[in-house]
């Protein structure tokens, strides 16, 4: 059985200038000035299932038809009585009319493709090019990730996305154009498009890349082997280059569409040179490189496993990465592209684990796991991709090579000298040794619980003294290819400088994590790199009820943004009693809170004392000097904590003054 799969920067071409955008074209510009932005609008709306070649041709056909119709039927204009005032280009009625025509054509073509997947071929109204295959310029990982996101949308949603981002229109104007183009529910299309644009904040810059520009295409002959045919159509190649430069018509050699794969696999296969699919080109680090390098990360991992010499297995893994067969299960952590490698990847492992042939590869920013059935069972292969850019001694210490009913098996870094497991919910129990093979594969470690929370397994690893990083650290599974590094920041100590995160292996850290571990489930499958528990304040509770910790847990993802949960942890009968969540960051929102760039925190909540009376509690981080509560309760307090008798569910606004100026506020 194949184990169950685990759950940049924009690039602008030199030719991309602001003047290329439709929004920057002058209102009086001739229609040909709109050619490139209209072609991009059509290309983005058309179905990716066409493949890049036919999609480019159909985009040009859409624009040329729209321009031809525009020349035959010009819009009437009211004679100007005085010099017109400057206006935004997007109010140009001519351009809007052209956009509507392009969208109508592209939406009709999408409907035709869904009815007849083979449409269109030569002779269906497309421009003609002989002996050539056309494709937009291959982009990077970010561009391919955006392309895949758009491929999952319906045509009206892609059109809405193009209008909002590439064309830069407002919601009201985009809704009007979609309605005029025949979209039945423009509001729903816009809502979906806005959600994608929010998830990819750099989408506007990505759409300006050559990946989505059908007027800047790459040309290649239809058959690299038949040189006589290439010479026969050399004149067509020169003509096509000239035509492409001015945005004129393009087309395909009759019959050249035969056997074209889906858009995703065709794009990826075309983007990967044959050399990158050659197992002989896989990079491998020397066995002892990790012990004498200043870069202790995945680049220092040697190739391990009994199947590192199995070229057939390695070739299947590379081919699946370049162009996954239809039955391949492909997963990627959020914000991670599954695009093919840009350079020969590094081989980390090849062997048989839990009845599957497994290959682990590393390419700069990503780790890839390929798994196929090793016993001939009819099970589809799996390809898992995870971001690991800027990994270090702890975050590059382990990757999951197998995930099944018996738990997770990890492949450990060569610098891991000691391996043990422990239960985060039982901080007083000692860690238990974990067996590891000579190739660095562990025995199964129980998976973190998906339902209930009676136990929470973690790996306790110790790095080798050979890299002068001889210390223990904790990692735990959240369903991704790489485990999550757990750290702890102790509470403020008088006038001492602000504390820094440290490893969560000490007694106090383990006690704190026992009350926070079950909250980790909320970040499962989110591509989390590390989670830090910061005790930003400690408060003496009313009625001599003991001391409470205020804890801010921050989950840092590989893609950059962090997510935050604030808990109140009053005294409890059990060491594993979860704290009470009093504040949390909204899903999808980024914040600097509780990081080195957001060290000022304030939170408040109601709390019931042992007597049954209720209080308003509030606490701020070390630089909060005084607090003031208004609303249902009026109270002030010197220092970073406040406790005032109140009713259950009290609604109050608490404001804290920060040392050096500024303030924080929280409301209930």
Describe, in plain words, how this protein is organized in 3D:
With 668 residues, the protein is an alpha+beta fold. The protein has 13 helices and 26 strands. It has helices spanning 35-45, 51-72, 93-115, 141-151, 155-164, 171-180, 186-199, 203-207, 227-232, 234-246, 263-271, 311-322, 507-514, and strands at 132-136, 217-221, 329-332, 346-353, 356-363, 366-373, 382-387, 398-404, 407-412, 416-423, 432-433, 457-463, 472-476, 484-489, 502-503, 528-540, 547-557, 562-569, 580-584, 602-608, 614-620, 624-631, 635-638, 641-646, 652-658, 663-667. Strands 10, 11, 12, 13, 14, 15, 16, 17, 18 and 19 form a ten-stranded mixed sheet that branches. A five-stranded mixed sheet has the order 3-7-6-5-4, with helices on one face. Strands 23-22-25-26 form a four-stranded antiparallel sheet, with no helix packed on it. Helix 1 crosses helix 2 and helix 5 (155-164) crosses helix 7 (186-199). The longest helix has 23 residues, at 93-115. The model is unreliable at 1-30, 72-91, 117-124 and 223-271 (pLDDT under 50).
């Amino acid at each position: 059985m194949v184990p169950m799969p685990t759950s940049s920067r924009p690039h602008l071409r030199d030719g991309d200038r602001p003047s290329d955008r439709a929004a920057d074209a002058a209102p009086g510009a001739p229609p040909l000035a709109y050619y490139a932005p209209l072609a991009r609008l059509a290309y983005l709306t058309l179905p990716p299932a066409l493949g890049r070649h036919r999609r480019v041709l159909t985009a040009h056909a859409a624009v040329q038809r729209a321009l031809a119709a525009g020349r035959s039927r010009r819009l009437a204009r009211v004679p100007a009585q005085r010099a017109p005032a400057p206006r935004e280009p997007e109010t140009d009625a001519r351009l809007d009319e052209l956009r509507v025509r392009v969208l109508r054509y592209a939406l009709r073509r999408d409907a035709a493709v869904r009815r007849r997947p083979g449409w269109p071929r030569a002779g269906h109204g497309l421009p003609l090019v002989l002996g050539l295959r056309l494709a937009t310029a291959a982009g990077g990982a970010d561009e391919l990730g955006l392309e895949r996101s758009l491929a999952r949308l319906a045509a009206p949603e892609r059109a809405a996305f193009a209008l909002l981002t590439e064309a830069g229109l407002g919601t009201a104007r985009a809704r009007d154009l979609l309605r005029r183009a025949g979209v039945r529910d423009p509001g729903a299309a816009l809502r979906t498009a806005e959600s994608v644009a929010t998830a990819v904040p750099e989408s506007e810059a990505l759409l300006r890349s050559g990946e989505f520009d059908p007027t800047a295409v790459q040309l290649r002959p239809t058959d690299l082997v038949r040189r006589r045919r290439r010479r026969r159509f050399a004149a067509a190649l020169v003509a096509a280059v000239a035509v492409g430069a001015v945005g004129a018509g393009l087309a395909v050699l009759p019959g050249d569409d035969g056997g074209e794969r889906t858009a995703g696999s065709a794009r990826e296969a075309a983007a990967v040179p044959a050399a990158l699919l050659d197992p002989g080109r896989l990079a491998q680090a020397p066995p002892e490189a990790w012990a004498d390098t200043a870069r202790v990360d995945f680049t220092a991992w040697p190739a391990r496993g009994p199947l590192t010499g199995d070229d057939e297995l390695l070739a299947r893994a590379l081919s699946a990465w370049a162009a996954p067969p239809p039955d391949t299960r492909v997963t990627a952590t959020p914000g991670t592209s599954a695009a093919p490698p840009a350079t020969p990847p590094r081989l980390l492992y090849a062997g048989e684990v839990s009845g599957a042939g497994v290959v682990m590869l590393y390419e700069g920013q990503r780790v890839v796991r390929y798994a196929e059935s090793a016993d001939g069972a009819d099970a589809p292969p799996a390809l898992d991709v995870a971001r690991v850019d800027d990994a270090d001694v702890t975050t590059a210490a382990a990757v999951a090579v197998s995930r099944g009913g018996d738990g997770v098996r990890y492949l450990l870094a060569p610098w891991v000298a000691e391996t043990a497991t422990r239960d985060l919910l039982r901080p007083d129990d000692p860690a238990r040794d974990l067996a590891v093979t000579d190739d660095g594969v562990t025995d199964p470690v129980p998976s973190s619980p998906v339902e209930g929370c009676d136990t929470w397994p973690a790996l306790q690893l110790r790095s080798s003294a050979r890299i002068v990083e001889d210390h223990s650290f904790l990692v735990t599974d959240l369903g991704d290819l790489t485990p999550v590094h757990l750290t702890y920041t102790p509470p403020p100590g008088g006038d001492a400088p602000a504390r820094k995160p440290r490893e969560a292996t000490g007694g106090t850290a383990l006690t704190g994590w026992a009350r926070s571990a079950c909250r980790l489930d909320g970040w499962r499958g989110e591509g989390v790199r590390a989670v830090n528990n910061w005790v930003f304040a400690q408060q003496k509770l009313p009625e001599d009820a003991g001391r409470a910790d205020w804890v801010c847990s921050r989950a840092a993802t590989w893609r950059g943004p962090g997510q935050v949960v604030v808990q109140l942890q009053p005294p409890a009968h059990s060491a594993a009693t979860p704290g009470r969540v009093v504040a949390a960051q909204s899903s999808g929102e980024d914040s600097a809170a509780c990081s080195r760039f957001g060290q000022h925190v304030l939170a408040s909540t109601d709390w019931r004392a042992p007597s049954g009376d209720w209080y308003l509690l509030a606490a701020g981080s070390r630089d909060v000097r005084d607090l003031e509560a208004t609303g249902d309760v009026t109270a002030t307090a010197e220092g970073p904590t406040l406790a005032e008798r109140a009713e259950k569910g009290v609604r109050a606004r608490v404001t804290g003054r920060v040392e050096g100026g500024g303030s924080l506020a929280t409301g209930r």
